[in-house]
C-alpha cells in the first residue's frame, strides 16, 4: 500500500476518533445530586436568577389544571407535527432511534437529568443522530410543588449534565406533567428558556394502548398544527411510537413530523444560558462545600464548551480533551507500528 494512502486513512481515523472522544464526555456522578433526588438549592445560582419572582405559594401536589395560555402548545403552521418524547434517555430509547432513522424522521427529546447519569451514551447517540435535545428537570418533580431555589437547581443540573455529554445547552424546556404557574414561568423567563407544552397527548404514560389509533384519528381530521406528547422511557410506551408515527405519515392531513425547534424556527441551543445563571461562564458545581468556586467565562456559541475547572472536578472540555489526546496517542502508535510492518 502506498504510504500516502496509509497516512490518509490513519489521519481520517484519528480525526473521527478524536471528534467522537471530544463529544463523548461521561458525567462525573459526584458533580450531581443522586438520581431522582430533588436537586439541592445553591445560593449563588438563586441570588442571580430569582429576580422579580411572583409571590405564589408552593403547591404541594402541583396544579390539577395549569394554565398554558402563555406557553407554546403547538406548531405555527398547518401540516406541521411537532414530535416529542419525554423522560428519557432510557433502556428503550435506542429502539426508538432505530424506528426514527428507518423513517428518516427527527424529533424532540425532553431529557430528565437523572436518567443521563445511567444512559449518557444513549443521550449522545440521540444528539448525534440529529434529534433536538431539550430540558425536563433533574428529578421530574411537579414544578409548582418545589421552592424557587429548588426549581432553579433542578434546571441548572439538568442543563449542566446535558452539556457535559453533548457539549451544548438546550434552550427549550417542558415542565413535568405540564405543571407550571406564573412563579415557575418567571424563573424560566429569567433563564431565557422557551416553554413548550402540547396539544395532542398520547396518554401512553397513563397506560393508553391505542396511541396509533388516537394519532391516526388526528392525522385524518384536517391539517391543523400539532405538538404531541409521547414517552420513550417505558417498556409499555416505546413500542407504540413506531405505529403511531406510521399513522401520522399515512394520514390525509399530510403532516410532516419534525422536531419542535424546527417547526417554531428557533435556535435549539443557547450558551448564553450560563451568562444568565452566573453572569460569567458556567456555574459552579460543588455539592460538598458551602462555598462555590468561581467559573471562567464560556463561549455563547451553540457548539462552545467551557474550559474552567471547579474545585477538584474538571469541566466537560478538559475531561474530553484529555480523553481525546489519549485516543490520539494510542491510534498514532498503532499507525506507526503498522507502517513499520508494512514497509
TrEMBL record:
GO terms for molecular function: chitin deacetylase activity; metal ion binding. The chain crosses the membrane at residues 324-342. Residues 289-314 are annotated as: Disordered. Its main location: membrane. GO terms for cellular component: plasma membrane; side of membrane. It is found in: Cell membrane; Secreted, Cell wall. Gene3D superfamilies: Glycoside hydrolase/deacetylase (3.20.20.370). It is a lipid-anchor; GPI-anchor. Keywords: Carbohydrate metabolism, Cell membrane, Cell wall, Cell wall biogenesis/degradation, Chitin degradation, Cobalt, Glycoprotein, GPI-anchor, Hydrolase, Lipoprotein, Membrane, Metal-binding, Polysaccharide degradation, Secreted, Signal, Transmembrane, Transmembrane helix. GO terms for biological process: cell wall organization; chitin catabolic process; fungal-type cell wall biogenesis; polysaccharide catabolic process. Its cofactor is Co(2+). PROSITE patterns: NODB (PS51677). Residues 1-24 form the signal peptide. It catalyses: [(1->4)-N-acetyl-beta-D-glucosaminyl](n) + n H2O = chitosan + n acetate. It comes from the Eukaryota. Residues 79-261 form the NodB homology domain. Pfam families: Polysacc_deac_1. Residues 289-312 have a biased composition (Low complexity). InterPro entries: Glyco_hydro/deAcase_b/a-brl (IPR011330), NODB_dom (IPR002509), Polysacc_deacetylase_ArnD (IPR050248). Its EC number is 3.5.1.41. The keyword Nucleotide-binding does not apply. Belongs to the polysaccharide deacetylase family. PANTHER family: CHITIN DEACETYLASE 1-RELATED, GLYCOSYL TRANSFERASE-RELATED. This is chitin deacetylase.
Amino acid at each position: 500500500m502506498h504510504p500516502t494512502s496509509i497516512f490518509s486513512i490513519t489521519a481520517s481515523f484519528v480525526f473521527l476518533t478524536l471528534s467522537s472522544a471530544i463529544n463523548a464526555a461521561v458525567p462525573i456522578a459526584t458533580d450531581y445530586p443522586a438520581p431522582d433526588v430533588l436537586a439541592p438549592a445553591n445560593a449563588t445560582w438563586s441570588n442571580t436568577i430569582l429576580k422579580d419572582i411572583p409571590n405564589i405559594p408552593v403547591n404541594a401536589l402541583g396544579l390539577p389544571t395549569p394554565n398554558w395560555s402563555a406557553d407554546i402548545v403547538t406548531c405555527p403552521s398547518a401540516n406541521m407535527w411537532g414530535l416529542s418524547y419525554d423522560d428519557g434517555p432510557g433502556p428503550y430509547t435506542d429502539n426508538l432511534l432505530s424506528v426514527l432513522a428507518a423513517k428518516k424522521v427527527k424529533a424532540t427529546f425532553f431529557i430528565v437529568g437523572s436518567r443521563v447519569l445511567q444512559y449518557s451514551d444513549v443521550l449522545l447517540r440521540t444528539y448525534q443522530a440529529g434529534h433536538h435535545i431539550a430540558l425536563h428537570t433533574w428529578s421530574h418533580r411537579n414544578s409548582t410543588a418545589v421552592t424557587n431555589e429548588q426549581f432553579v437547581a433542578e434546571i441548572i443540573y439538568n442543563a449542566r449534565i446535558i452539556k457535559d455529554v453533548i457539549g451544548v445547552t438546550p434552550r427549550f424546556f417542558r415542565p413535568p406533567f405540564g405543571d407550571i404557574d406564573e412563579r415557575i414561568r418567571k424563573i424560566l423567563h429569567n433563564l431565557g428558556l422557551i416553554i413548550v407544552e402540547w396539544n395532542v397527548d398520547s396518554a401512553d404514560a397513563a397506560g393508553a394502548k391505542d396511541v396509533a389509533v388516537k394519532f391516526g384519528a388526528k392525522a385524518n381530521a384536517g391539517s391543523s398544527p400539532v405538538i404531541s406528547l409521547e414517552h420513550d422511557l417505558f417498556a409499555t410506551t416505546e413500542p407504540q411510537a413506531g405505529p403511531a408515527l406510521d399513522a401520522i405519515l399515512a394520514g390525509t392531513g399530510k403532516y410532516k413530523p419534525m422536531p419542535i425547534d424546527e417547526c417554531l424556527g428557533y435556535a435549539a441551543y443557547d450558551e448564553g444560558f450560563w451568562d444568565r445563571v452566573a453572569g460569567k461562564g458556567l456555574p459552579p458545581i460543588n455539592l460538598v462545600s458551602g462555598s462555590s468556586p468561581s467559573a471562567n467565562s464560556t463561549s455563547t456559541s451553540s457548539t462552545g464548551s467551557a474550559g474552567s475547572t471547579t474545585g477538584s472536578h474538571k469541566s466537560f472540555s478538559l475531561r474530553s480533551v484529555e480523553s481525546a489526546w489519549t485516543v490520539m496517542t494510542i491510534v498514532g502508535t498503532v499507525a506507526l507500528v503498522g507502517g513499520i510492518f508494512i514497509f
